[in-house]
Amino acid sequence: MQASELEVVVTERIIRPARNLAGALRLPGDKSISHRYGLLSGLAEGTSTFSNFSTGADPSSSLACVAALGAKVEWLPGHSNADRVAVTGVGGQFTPSASPLDCGNSGSTMRMIAGLLAAQTGEFTLVGDESLTRRPMERVRKPLSQMGAQIELTDGHAPITVRGAALAGIDFATPIPSAQVKTALLFAGLQAEGTTTVRESVRTRDHSELALRAFGAQLTRTIDSVSITGKQTLKAIEAAVPGDMSSAAFFLCAAALFPESNLVLDGLGLNPTRATLLDVLTALGANIAVLNLEEKYGELVGTVQLNPPQSLGGTTVSGALAAQLIDELPVLAAIAPYTRNGIRIRDAKELRVKESDRIDLVVKNLRAMGAEVEEFEDGLDVPGGQQLHGAQIDSGGDHRIAMAFSVAALRAEGDTSILGAESAAISFPEFFDMLETVAER
Ligand code: S3P
User: Fold this and answer.
1) Does 279 qualify as catalytic in the annotation?
2) How far is the CA of 313 from the centre of ligand 1 (A)?
3) Closest by alpha carbon to 420, among 130, 32, 183, 141?
4) Where are the alpha helices (DSSP H) in 199-244?
5) How far apart are alpha carbons 226 and 246 in whole angstroms?
6) What CA–CA distance (Å, rounded) separates 93 from 112?
7) Which of 180, 202, 358 has most ligand 1 atoms within 8 Å of CB, for mutation?
8) Which of 209, 326, 428 to mutate to test the pocket of ligand 1 (most atoms within 8 A of CB)?
């Protein structure tokens, strides 16, 4: 079964307050890693198989795109039906598809596949849904054009036309930290003449570097750069995708709100470029134990046990931390009123160009629940010591907003209704069911 077939259209979800979170969960596969495994296996030679592949709609968009470009994608029966997938790659050469490649809601798909296609023969059109069509694409057009590809945007956005070309490696410093832009360049660099170097001021998630190595490519890294030499070929792999830390974030933050919680997450991805939330929760006073650490293809996986404090302290997230925690900031802001000293977020302007303007929606929804909050262009200040009440939440069709406010709702007075709750399926279709299994009332 395809992940998209699992989507249930629920326009509204009622979240009732909880007493605590207790139990053990195994999270579905990491969205970022699934994208990379899906895209690279589509280009590679041979058949790759992945277990615990993300069930989210976004990685399915990546698979659908490589399938439209000639790869064979087959979902295999697994213990939870939709989590095993086999991808037979095209062995280096994609076939242009007759119709546009639909990236759905997925910025990762659009930006990363632009890099893969920049070196391919032919013309490719990339389209997305309304939210994706609003997101900035100049950040990939510029460096890929410098490498020699012809890329046309529509007023800085999708639809994008990529006319592939023989590319030459470049040395590029990313002006804003972005793993998607880095990945687009590495995927193009893999197929280019010469060496491509990407320099970044903050080390963003490094799943692309690890995945490229897993598929047999060679890369070199320094503290602030990664280089890939072109004309390398990829060979199929067999891999298990670690549990998604950004999905786990909702459960970790929810558990941290209740002194009586006891939550265990097994098989969780603990790549250091993704695990900063554990440090923040520790700084807020939670006790976090990491057990059973293992490594596969460079990705760390382990069990995380969270024991909350009597009450959470407070913290500031800014600078490099803001970039590393970018997907976790909405849920951190959503639990901030329940801390003693509040949470201050700065240097997070990128939140305004995600699936929605996440600063705007977090501020609006916190206020709807009765919180005092101050908005800044690049972040927000949420004072602590505030009790929220149930409200109607506008998710704006953004999965992380829907899930973040489901968490805030667990400690509110009265019920909360989440509008557009079905958007959780973009990254985490199982979210509401899993929440019910661990929320004690
Ligand atoms: C992602 C990188 C981040 C993140 C997104 C996934 C990735 O985006 O917000 O959810 O998988 O590389 P940016 O590259 O725009 O920072």
Assistant:
1) no
2) 28
3) 130
4) 207-214
5) 24
6) 16
7) 180
8) 326
H or E element in which residue 64 lies: helix 57-68
String of DSSP letters for 23-41: EEEEPPBPHHHHHHHHHHH
Burial class (CB in 10 A: 0-12, 13-18, 19+), 335: buried
Q: Can you point out the beta strands (E) in 347-437?
A: 374-376, 379-382, 392-394, 416-419
CB 438 within 8 A of CB 23: yes
Q: How far apart are CA 417 and CA 434, in angstroms?
A: 18
Tokens of 407: 């968490």
pTM above 0.90, yes or no: yes
Count of CB atoms within 10 A of residue 155's CB?
7
Three-state SS at 80: coil
Strand order from edge to edge, sheet including 374-376: 314-317, 342-345, 379-382, 374-376
Per the residue annotation, which of 244, 327, 394, 398 is the catalytic one?
327
Residue 169 near residue 196 (C-beta atoms within 8 A) = yes
Centroid of ligand 1 to alpha carbon of 316 (angstroms) = 21
pLDDT at 8: 47
- How far is residue 415 from each of residues 157, 227, 257, 398, measured CA to CA in Å? 39, 51, 17, 21
Q: What is the pLDDT of residue 11?
A: 80
CB of 139 within 6 A of ligand 1: the answer is no
Give the pLDDT score at 80: 57
For the chain, list residues with pLDDT below 50: 1-8, 81
Question: What is the per-residue pLDDT for 59?
Answer: 98
For residue 77, what pLDDT is reported? 78
Q: Is the CB of 180 under 6 A from ligand 1?
A: yes
- CB atoms under 10 Å from CB of 156, counted, come to 12
185: its two tokens? 């360049």
